[in-house]
Amino acid sequence: MSLVHVAVAVIVNEDNQVLIALRQSHQHQGDLWEFPGGKVEAGEATEVALVREIKEELGLEVIDPVPLIEIKHEYSDKSVLLDVWSTRHFNGQPKGLEGQMIRWCPIESLADFNFPAANQTIIEVIQSTKL
Questions:
Q1: Cα angle: 98, vertex 101, 107; to 5 degrees
Q2: How many domains does the chain have?
Q3: N or C, which end of the chain has less CB nearby within 10 Å?
Q4: Per-residue model confidence as pLDDT tens digits over 9-30
């Protein structure tokens, strides 16, 4: 089974809310919420991929992201390596540039949303760490 390397952003605003996006129905793990990000291309540095993906998907300029956690997860049809970074520093207002629904969610309310299994550890880390 191939491994998909994904750069993931935990973007926190001044109200201590995290930006989440709803995966589209046709995507792997569709109709579930996620932390935004995307695939790291061959030879690309993870931080570069993160900044690029967030610009493409949300129109935000991520500034000074910090590594948070790496998670390897096995789904029945694929393996993913989530390279998770966090930041409170960004320019712009987020927009779902790929047609995805987005919202700011209070950190304490993240468990109220349905996320892919691989994201559960991210939620635990966010809720137990002062970002």
A1: 125
A2: 1
A3: N
A4: 999 999 999 999 997 766 655 6
Q: Tell me, yes or no, if the pTM score tops 0.85.
A: yes
Nearest to 129 by CA among 86, 96, 97: 86
Specify the DSSP element, H or E, that contains 124.
helix 120-128
Are 84 and 69 a contacting pair, CB within 8 Å? yes
Q: Which CATH number belongs to the domain containing residue 22 in this structure?
A: 3.90.79.10
From CA 121, how far away is CA 71, in angstroms rounded? Answer: 8
H helix intervals, 3-87: 46-58
d(Cα 122, Cα 126) in Å, to the nearest integer?
6
Show the tokens assigned to 77. Answer: 């049809």
Contact 11, 20 (CB under 8 A): no
| Burial tier of 34 (Cβ tally within 10 Å: 0-12, 13-18, 19+) | buried
